[in-house]
Amino acid sequence: MKPGYQRLYEEGVLRKRADTLARLMRDCTLCPRKCHVDRLSGERGLCGLGGSVILDRGLPHHGEEPPISGSRGAGTIFFSSCNLRCIYCQNYQISHRAKGRVVDFQELSGLMLSLQERGCHNIDVVTATPHLAGFTEALDDACGKGLAIPIVYNSSGYENPDVIKLLDGIVDLYLPDFKYGNENDARLLSTVGDYCSFAVPALKEMVRQVGDSLDMTNGIAKRGIIIRHLVLPGRIENSLQVLKLIKKNISTSVSLSIMSQYTPIPALEGHPLMGRRITEEEYERVVNEALDMGFVNIFVQEVSDDQIVPDFDRNTPFLWS
User: Fold this and answer.
1) Can you tell me the distance from the alpha carbon of 113 to that of 146, in angstroms, rounded to the nearest whole number?
2) Do 32 and 85 meet the contact criterion of CB atoms below 8 Å apart?
3) Torsions phi, psi of 10, nearest 5?
4) Range of the domain at 23
5) Average pLDDT over residues 284-290
6) Tally of domains in the chain
7) 18: part of which helix (H) or strand (E)?
8) C-alpha–C-alpha distance, residues 77 and 79, integer Å
9) For the domain that residue 170 is a member of, what is the CATH number?
10) Per-residue confidence at 52, pLDDT binned at 50, 70, 90?
11) pTM for the complete prediction?
12) Which residue in 52, 14, 58 sits closest to 131, CA to CA?
């Protein structure tokens, strides 16, 4: 299956999309924060980023869902910073700060090509929203040099639907979180009071583009969407509200990844709400409710005390890498 961005490259549309995304940075509205700062002139919004692309690293990653990681890994590019500020973020070392390596579009293009050469099944961009102009420019360059594997857009779900529309044909696989089913938890845990009102239309737009199922070849996803939800301790009602919103507004055919891996980061040790792992009973209740609601395509995890979150202070942040 030919990635959609190849057609856009051939038609000259990919380059135009990069220019459009760059113009949005002049009065930045790339994400729902809509900071309205001129990032191209060096002003910084809540994400702490100016006009440069900053990334932490790129590597073959074997910890995504099986149709994404496959046998050779996803070609995962971890960008720095994030438009959310989740107090419990498992990637807090890179998401809570705008630190990393500044790269130009040619270096980023070369990284994508090297991941393809290493056999990765796709290019999996993590929290790319603030970096979209530079990423799309790099994709245009890489496509001209032979990039031919799918693009996975791995995001928090807190997206500007109008910006997601600009990714139509660029992204082959969407891998968004759907974190909250109510705005109170979003405000308490991620400092935004409008998560649902943006996540629902953004995910609907993603499904409009790629459908509500996964197109697979030899067990590897080539097109489609997987919606992730991290079960949080003591927040089961939030999880059930998420499932209800997906059922009502999107589809019960969509693939869900219900994650049990929540681990308190050091800053939350002893926190009255978030200072513990989830229980097996909490996790099973969410999975069983999803089944009762009619969801049939569900990725699940075991509930354990194993350390399965990354440490980006290590040369190899994933213990299984």
Assistant:
1) 8
2) no
3) -60, -30
4) 4-299
5) 98
6) 1
7) helix 13-24
8) 6
9) 3.20.20.70
10) very high
11) 0.96
12) 52
